[in-house]
Amino acid sequence: MRREPEAEEPRAPGRARRRRRRREGRARTVRSNLLPPPGPEEPAGRGARHLADNRLKTTKYTLLSFLPKNLFEQFHRLANVYFVFIALLNFVPAVNAFQPGLALAPVLFILAVTAFKDLWEDYSRHRSDHEINHLGCLVFSREEKSFVNRYWKEIRVGDFVRLRCNEIIPADILLLSSSDPDGLCHIETANLDGETNLKRRQVVRGFSELVSEFNPLTFTSVIECEKPNNDLTRFRGCIIHENGKKAGLYKENLLLRGCTIRNTEAVVGIVIYAGHETKALLNNNGPRYKRSRLERQMNCDVLWCVLILVGMALFSAVGHGLWVQRYQEKKALFDVPESDGSSLSPITAAVYSFLTMIIVLQVLIPISLYVSIEIVKVCQVYFINQDVELYDEETDSQLQCRALNITEDLGQIQYIFSDKTGTLTENKMVFRRCTVSGVEYSHDANARRLAMYQEADSEEEEVAPRGATLSQRGSIGSHQGVRVVYRSQSVKSHRRTGSRAEAKRASMLSRHTAFSSPMEKDITPDPKLLEKVSECGRSLATARHQEHPLARLTPELADVFDFFIALTICNTVVVTSPDQPRQKVRVRLEVKSPVKTIEDFLRRFTPSRLAAGCGSVSSLASGKAAHKPGAGLLASLSPDGALLRLEERLGRAPPAITDNGYAGAGGWAPDGAPRELRYEAESPDEAALVYAARAYSCALVDRLPDQVAVELPHLGRLTFELLHTLGFDSIRKRMSVVIRHPLTDEINVYTKGADSVLMDLLLPCSADDTRGRHQKKIQSKTQHFLNLYAVEGLRTLCIAKRVLSKEEYARWLQGHLEAEASLDNREDLLFQSAVRLETGLHLLGATGIEDRLQDGVPETIAKLRQAGLQIWVLTGDKQETAVNIAYACKLLDRDEEVLTLNADSQEACAALLDQCLCYVQARRARSAPEKTPGPVTVGFAPLCPPSAPAAPGAGPSLVVDGRSLAYALERSLEDKFLLLAQQCRSVLCCRSTPLQKSMVVKLVRGKLKAMTLAIGDGANDVSMIQVADVGVGISGQEGMQAVMASDFAVPRFRYLERLLVVHGHWCYSRLAHMVLYFFYKNTMFVGLLFWFQFYCGFSASAMIDQWYLIFFNLLFSSLPQLVTGVLDKDVPADVLMAEPQLYRSGQNMEEYRPRTFWVNMADAAFQSLVCFFLPYLAYHDSDADLFTWGTPITAIALFTFLLHLGIETKTWTWLNWMACGFSILLFFIVALIYNASCATCYPPSNPYWTLQALMGDPVFYLTCLIAPVAALLPRLFFRALQGSLFPTQLQLGRQLAKRSPKKLSTAKEIFAQGHPPGDQDSEHLELGSRSTWGSLPRGCAPGASQPPCSPEAGGERSAADATVPCGDDALLERPSCRVPQTPAPRKPVQEGRPGGAETKTPGPSRAAPLPSIFSLPNFGSFSWISSLSLVSGLGSVLQLPRASLQPDKQDSDFLPGAPQPERDLCSLRGQTVEYF
Question: Angle at CA 1220, nearest 5°, toward 1216 and 1222?
Answer without folding.
Answer: 115
